[in-house]
């Protein structure tokens, strides 16, 4: 123990960010001005800090064997300092990459995907409502104006997607992984589309079904409890969006996912894929075991690939990439907003979770989400992961655009259409709807 304490003291002195440690004996190590303290109940947990095994240290915090005293923002400054620059991204060897691919095949059956999605999204609707915006949009917001609130930025994101897809009244639109219905309802309300959404979450299905009924939109909006692989419409859709779902597909299913998007989209139609991507090539992962922590506690079965791999898979399926935008800093700000909102309501959050699970389990889930939200905010800030919107078309050789022969789609090949005021047709629809 004395040797371990000496190692810890030396490590604390070397950190650029003040951190204090409370030992199992009650003794405190570290600078007096430290704004964050980690209190340990046993030596095993303490050794994890000494060796910078942050994923396993997070496991100890979730299990209550270590406790955070201080803000999550200050803790994440410490986490960033604990990961050495040369160890931020780790590239696995050929054998590890093979194992990763085999695991991807094994853990992405329809049954396992459904179980994994429900394990995350069906935790508790009331819990998510505590820290998401009023529409419960659970994906990266778009801060078009730096002064925007989270709610305003989420609405801006929904509208950005609709504008990129150039949605028009009467078009058949499908939202793959519709969540709590934010995009589905926005597209129907403001763009007049005939909208279909799918989800694997029972809680989300029930919530969106109520929204549709309450707003009297059952004649042109529907939500289906359905795996994307099993969606078989009577004819392809004009426009398609997949938001925050790509991360759950799995490397082994990238080809099938891409082919499914093409199958669901009519020739000449447009699709947008909004998803998290790895920042490193060759299956590189964030060091310190942070990815393992998220896999275990938050997104079982989640897998990230580099944007180049995503575009390659989509292109191989016959889709043409026409625009790609990186929103990484926007997701960092979104995640901090979620983290701050949860931190402001911790006692209430634990009570909410305890209504749907045993108290011990509720405490663990809460600690896991605290670390997950703040840890992901840090990861996006540091550039360890990224968020891309990939806009694609299903080329149609027979579709002719007078001023741009060879467009082969509804995409105008002039990016300014996304940011210009809505056209007269959409404005007329909005005015009539209001």
UniProtKB/TrEMBL annotation:
Residue numbers annotated as active site: 376
InterPro entries: CFA/CMAS, CMAS, SAM-dependent_MTases_sf
Keyword Plastid recorded: no
GO BP annotation list: lipid biosynthetic process; methylation
Domain of life: Bacteria
Single GO MF annotation: methyltransferase activity
Gene3D superfamilies tied to this protein: Vaccinia Virus protein VP39
Methyltransferase among keywords: yes
Record's keyword terms, sorted: Lipid metabolism, Methyltransferase, S-adenosyl-L-methionine, Transferase
Record family assignment: Belongs to the CFA/CMAS family.
Name listed for the protein in its UniProt record: Cyclopropane-fatty-acyl-phospholipid synthase
Record lineage: Bacteria, Pseudomonadati, Pseudomonadota, Alphaproteobacteria, Rhodobacterales
């Amino acid at each position: 123990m004395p040797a371990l304490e000496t190692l810890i003291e030396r490590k604390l002195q070397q950190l650029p960010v003040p951190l204090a440690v409370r030992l199992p004996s009650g003794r405190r190590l570290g600078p007096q001005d430290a704004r964050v303290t980690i209190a340990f109940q046993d030596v095993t947990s303490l050794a994890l800090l000494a060796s910078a095994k942050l994923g396993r240290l997070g496991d100890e915090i979730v299990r209550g064997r270590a406790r955070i005293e201080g803000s999550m923002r200050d803790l994440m400054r410490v986490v960033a300092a604990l990961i050495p620059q040369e160890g931020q991204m780790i590239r696995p060897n050929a054998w590890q990459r093979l194992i990763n691919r085999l695991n991807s095949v094994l853990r992405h059956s329809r049954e396992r995907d459904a179980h994994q999605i429900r394990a995350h999204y069906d935790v508790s609707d009331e819990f998510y409502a505590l820290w998401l915006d009023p529409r419960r949009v659970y994906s990266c917001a778009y801060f078009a104006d730096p002064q925007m609130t989270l709610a305003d930025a989420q609405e801006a994101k929904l509208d950005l997607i609709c504008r990129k897809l150039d949605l028009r009244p009467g078009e058949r639109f499908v939202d793959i992984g519709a969540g709590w219905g934010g995009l589905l309802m926005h597209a129907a309300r403001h763009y007049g589309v005939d909208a279909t959404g799918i989800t694997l979450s029972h809680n989300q299905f029930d919530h969106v079904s109520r929204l549709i009924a309450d707003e009297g939109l059952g004649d042109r909006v529907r939500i289906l409890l359905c795996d994307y692989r099993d969606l078989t419409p009577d004819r392809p859709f004009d426009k398609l969006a997949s938001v925050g779902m790509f991360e759950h597909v799995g490397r082994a299913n990238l080809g099938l996912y891409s082919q499914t998007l093409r199958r669901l989209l009519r020739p000449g139609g447009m699709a947008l894929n909004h998803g998290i991507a790895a920042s490193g090539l060759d299956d590189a992962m964030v060091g310190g075991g942070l990815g393992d922590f998220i896999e275990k506690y938050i997104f079982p079965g989640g897998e990230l690939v580099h944007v180049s791999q995503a575009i390659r898979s989509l292109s191989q399926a016959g889709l043409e990439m026409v625009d790609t935008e990186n929103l990484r800093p926007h997701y960092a700000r979104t995640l901090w907003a979620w983290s701050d909102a949860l931190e402001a309501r911790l006692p209430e959050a634990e009570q909410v979770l305890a209504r749907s699970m045993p108290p011990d389990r509720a405490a663990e889930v809460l600690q896991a989400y605290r670390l997950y939200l703040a840890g992901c905010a840090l990861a996006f800030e540091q550039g360890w992961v990224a968020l891309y919107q990939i806009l694609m078309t299903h080329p149609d050789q027979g579709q002719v655009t007078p001023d741009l022969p060879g467009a082969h789609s509804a995409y105008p090949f002039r990016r300014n259409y996304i940011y210009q005021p809505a056209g007269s047709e959409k404005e007329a629809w909005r005015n009539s709807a209001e």
